[in-house]
Amino acid sequence: MIVLGSTSEVAQAFVEKALQEGEKFEKIYLFTSNKETTERFARHIDVKFLQQSEIIELDLTKEIDYNVFENINSTLLFCAIGYLGEGTKEGLYDNKNTQRIIEINYSKLIPVINYFAHKFENRRSGTIIGLSSVAGDRGRQSNFIYGSAKAAFTAYLSGLRNYLFDKKVHVITIKPGFMATKMTEGLPLNPKLTASPKQAADCIYKAFKKQKNIAYVLPVWSVIMMIIRNIPEFIFKKLKL
Amino acid sequence: MKPNFVQKVTNWGNFPVVEKEMKSDDSFDKIKDFILTHNEVIARGNGRCYGDASLGESIFSTKKLNKFISFDRLNGIIECESGVLLSEVLEISVPQGYFLYVTPGTKFVSVGGAIASDVHGKNHHAEGCFSEYVIEFKLMIENGEIITCSREENSEKFWATIGGMGLTGIILSAKFKLKNIESAYIRQESIKADNLDEIFKLFEESENWTYNVAWIDCLQTGKNIGKSILMRGEHAFPHELPQNLKEKPLRLKKKFEPTVPFYFPGFVLNKFTVKVFNLLYFKKQTKKEIKNIVDYETFFYPLDVVNDWNKIYGKSGFIQYQMVIPKEKGKEGMKKILETISRSGNGSFLAVLKLFGKNNPEAYNSFPMEGYTLALDFRVNSKLKMLIGKLDDIVQEFGGRIYLTKDSMSKSSLTNYLRNIQNSKFVSLQHKRIINNNQGS
Known about the structure:
heterodimer, A: two-stranded parallel ribbon, 9 helices, 45% helix, B: eight-stranded antiparallel beta sheet, 25% helix, globular
């Protein structure tokens, strides 16, 4: 299994869920920009499940050496890389913030996924799971830089799913909604709309087993986003969302 | 949305509820930052202590310190971060033939919490407190430095932290020993006792059993005071198991776990319903004595089966009152306590009696001392404080003390046995209450 963004609590919870359910992986490749935290996770799954893993440093804000990835092979890729950055109100005109959001959530990330998608395509098997966001369903004033990068990512996953369909590779888009993770700690989130990493992992694992195309983590989000998507633009532009 | 870490926090008893800053992180650098940038810090594990021990001005939740570090499967030594729950330890240790030496009545406490409370179990008379099996732990102290504490290294801090209610620093990880088991089942004997004399006699006769505990019906009066059921147990050997369990003696079958969906309205628990509950509980066992085999969850964690059972006490919450009375006066003291409760009509839904063995003098901050300990749940209402005051007086008269992990109302003279924890950085609401409130009330 290849995990992009291994310090993500959802990614870690998903790895644990899969191992608990008895999925077998020869090795888990943990891609991370934070070696210290990931080493702790690697030891954890070794202690808990006797699962071998390898840590690979990946910093999307730097030059990437693809040669390092050459010997990495798997049939499952889980991408949890995401960067919220500053909201639009605080960070819209801060170019560094904008660039970082676009790079980490989209422009620097896609080539990495493409690299592995190519391997999957050649082998004609495998599943790619990408964590996008409900923020990508419609641009809203509060976080549309992040939202637009996630919208692009959603479109990419959708296209990739279409492209890889007859190559026997499946692509799943996950739209988590609010999650109680490091990314959102301290934000006043409605607990009824917020999933814990474990809940999210359970749902993603279900989507993986059922080979779903698109899945919202909490079902209520599919309803909320359907409404938000369908508000006519002349009304939507006046809303404070 | 700008982060705001102020939130409503409460522990298992849902009393008291405070609005304080609470943050969680798994990066040691960030934890250090938190300590250095806040005046009064207290660590909180899974919030399973009942009262105000893990509440404070700035709360650091160890929930994200949830990783295992090592497991020596040959010698049964495990190391994990402090936010790992005992349930998670059991999940991996039981199938390997290891159990916790000491476990409290819920498996949902964190390892850090178990050390800070120096928890005890049904085997205190035989195997002591949790700390007996702790080899070492890592503690982040007031300047953000991480120190290793063991009996040899930083031993002063080691013993001050054991039972020290988090007032010496933030425990980051711990290494401790596990005990060998050959099955996940317990050979149990349940014996009915009609009164206090009988139950005390049973306790003394059962001293050779590893695990002893009694459920008391605390609404009984007169000669029926102390009506109870003693449950004693031993880890079962595979050959003692029924045929269908022999094949996989270390595996438990998955069970249905109901959840209490909402806070019960206040009137649900009253003298009448508690009486009915106790009646049913004690009538269920028709024979004087039952011998059977039960799985370890049923034996050790009967209440964990119902998720969020604390909600049955309603939104006003409940407290757990646990005291210990020295052995020689134990019977007399318990009689007085039970009489007082029975007279008050403030029935306890759950009342558990145990006999503690000798304490470890090195673990000077631990609650247990040789004697009888009773734990009682009471729903918080306007009359409760008066009852607690009366019970406190009795405990004081008999030279007993109160368990800090469950306390939120008692007299400070019964709870101020903590030593060597004077530290202006790590401060809990409980600590403040104990120091500032010498009159109790």
